[in-house]
Amino acid sequence: MASTKPIKEIAYYALHILIVLAIVSPLLFALVSSVRPLNDIFKYVSPVTWRTFIPTEITLQAYVDLFKEWAFGTILFNTLLVAVATVLFGIIIGSMAAFSFAKFEFKGKSLLFGFVLLTFMIPFEVIAIPLYRLIDQLNWIDSYYALIVPAVANGLVIFLYRQFFMDLPNALIESALLDGARWWKIYTAIIMPLCKPVSISAGLMLFISQWESFLWPLLVTHSQKFRVIQVALSDFTTEHSTLWNEMFAMAVIAVIIPILILLPLQRYFVQGVTNTGIKE
């Protein structure tokens, strides 16, 4: 038995190494391709050698062209603005709705909460057309309103907050009411400071969802003024050619920014999700 244990450990680590390589290899290829001249990107793809992942000539021209020719500064600003605004308003609205579901009694509460759960189970493609018609009637097409407002009310965020609030003792709220505190004071000064992990989890989900959004921005924005990063990635394919180095450069930036945000907060993200299990 003892002799088979090292073999199992070697197989275990070898399997994990293969999985990591399978995940990292495309990202590494994109990073390397973004600093290569356009003509060299697929020059060493077949057969795969060390030159495939180690550039022989390095140039940052693709990144320079992003800002000079493609107005990437505006694209990045739009994406960050939409994502951050959605996080701020989404946390406020989601937490307030969840607080009502958790601590108040009103007619039809269970049915309404059932509809909330249903919203994040239905694929977005099902509601894309009626939602587009609504946005069109509001004259919000090609505006920040069209990009931000539909994503603010998120059923999963409401669910996470509600599950967290269900665990808070009612005595905490009752003692504050006896001391003369109003509901708004209780919500802002007592409740919200207690739910830092779930707020970070909800914020990260909203941010990543907006950062990776492609279909909805493609439908509701037409001008370059409101272009976001996922839609802009499709602009590098033209009728006659594809600007692979610039596409890879933008893709690298599109991946790095969420990673830089997620890595320092992953501890709170895991804590927020694990502490909001299904409880009744």
Automatic annotation (TrEMBL):
Bilayer topology: Multi-pass membrane protein
Domain of life the protein comes from: Bacteria
Domain (ABC transmembrane type-1): residue spans on this chain: 76-265
KW Transmembrane helix (keyword) present: yes
Principal location listed in the UniProt entry: membrane
Membrane-traversing stretches: 12-32, 75-99, 111-132, 144-165, 186-208, 247-265
Pfam families documented for this protein: BPD_transp_1 (PF00528)
Subcellular location: Cell membrane
Record InterPro entries: MetI-like, MetI-like_sf
CDD domains for this protein: TM_PBP2
Keywords linked to the UniProt accession: Cell membrane, Membrane, Transmembrane, Transmembrane helix, Transport
PANTHER family, alphabetized: ABC TRANSPORTER PERMEASE PROTEIN MG189-RELATED-RELATED (PTHR43744), SN-GLYCEROL-3-PHOSPHATE TRANSPORT SYSTEM PERMEASE PROTEIN UGPE (PTHR43744:SF8)
Annotated family: Belongs to the binding-protein-dependent transport system permease family.
Name of the protein described by the UniProt record: Carbohydrate ABC transporter permease
Organism of derivation: Cohnella silvisoli
Taxonomic path: Bacteria, Bacillati, Bacillota, Bacilli, Bacillales
